[in-house]
Amino acid sequence: MSQTRKPPANAEDIFALIGKSQNIEEAASALQAMAHPIRIKVLCLLSSGEMAVQDINEAIGTTQSNISQHLRVLRASGLIESRKEGTRALYFVSDARILKLVAMTRDVFCTL
Amino acid sequence: MSQTRKPPANAEDIFALIGKSQNIEEAASALQAMAHPIRIKVLCLLSSGEMAVQDINEAIGTTQSNISQHLRVLRASGLIESRKEGTRALYFVSDARILKLVAMTRDVFCTL
DNA sequence: TTCTAATATTAGAAAACTCTAATAGAACGA
DNA sequence: TCGTTCTATTAGAGTTTTCTAATATTAGAA
């Protein structure tokens, strides 16, 4: 056992810190979805409000197909949602928790 | 252009929100390093202070090799550090920003 | 309907990730 | 030294991710 601090409690006690095992899986999924430069940029853009795919695409600058695929990843993991308006698709962050997490990521990596 | 809000500024302006492109890469790397159930658990454990590999291993419960490899990923990305004490290796989170990010992740995924 | 603009989907190759199993290395005690 | 404990590394297979290129779909305009 480690002598540098009190011995660890059992796994349940410890992971109660973050929640059930299910929460951990969920957190891992969400972080995984965030963990790509393009997707972080998208989340940043959408932090200010909804945007059409075309505008996201212009702001970030890659293939339309590529953006579309990244948007799908974000939506599949529940980080963003979308609605249709005519021929355009508008994406947005609906969950305040996600907005918080994005803001926090910004804090952490810009406030060295 | 989107008509639902004012047109997007250029990419530089927008990404000033999160920082330079380099920061985005850095953030993506860190999130990627966090984005695994085992590694989230490790970060949770280490949030309370340093721990030896063996103790981490017992708390999480997988192969010693597997834990070691995950620890390496976390260390390679700068999320944790380690020191030696005799035959044991003690791992810890040295950066307060990371502690904040882990705490935040906990907040977000446990406070539905 | 036909054309066009906006978005989504598919396919496939290359790269990265993650596990298991085996082995290596380092520090300590007998 | 020899054996043991703790940790790290390597190798390899299986899976997942990510890109490009091509194609499909959808809605509106002409």
Helix content of chain A: 55-70%
Q: What is the number of helices of chain A?
A: 6
Largest beta-sheet characterization of chain A? 3 strands, antiparallel
Mean pLDDT of chain A: 86
**Which of globular, elongated, flat, extended, rod-shaped describes the shape of chain A?**
globular
Low-confidence stretches of chain A: 1-8
Report, as a whole number of angstroms, the end-to-end distance of chain A: 35 Å
Structural class per helix/strand content of chain A?
mainly alpha
Strand content of chain A: 5-15%
Strand order of the largest sheet of chain A: 1-3-2
Oligomer: homodimer
As a whole number of angstroms, the C-alpha radius of gyration of chain A is: 18 Å
Give, in order, the helices and strands of chain A. HHHEHHEEH
User: Biggest interface and which pair forms it?
Assistant: A-B, 61 and 59 residues
Number of strands of chain A: 3
What's the helix and strand layout?
The structure is a homodimer of 112-residue chains.
Chain A (H helix, E strand, L loop, with lengths): L10 H5 L5 H14 L2 H11 L3 E2 H8 L3 H13 L4 E5 L2 E5 L3 H15 L2
Antiparallel strand pairs in A: 1-3, 2-3
The structure holds a DNA duplex (30 and 30 nucleotides).
Descriptive labels:
homodimer; 112 residues; 3-stranded antiparallel β-sheet; 6 helices; 59% helix; DNA-binding
Question: What do these coordinates show?
Answer:
Two copies of one chain form a homodimer. By secondary structure, chain A is mainly alpha-helical. Chain A is 59% helix and 11% strand. Chain A is built from six helices and three strands. Chain A has a three-stranded antiparallel β-sheet. In chain A, β2 and β3 form a beta hairpin. The longest helix of chain A has 15 residues. The two termini of chain A are 35 Å apart. The structure holds a DNA duplex (30 and 30 nucleotides).
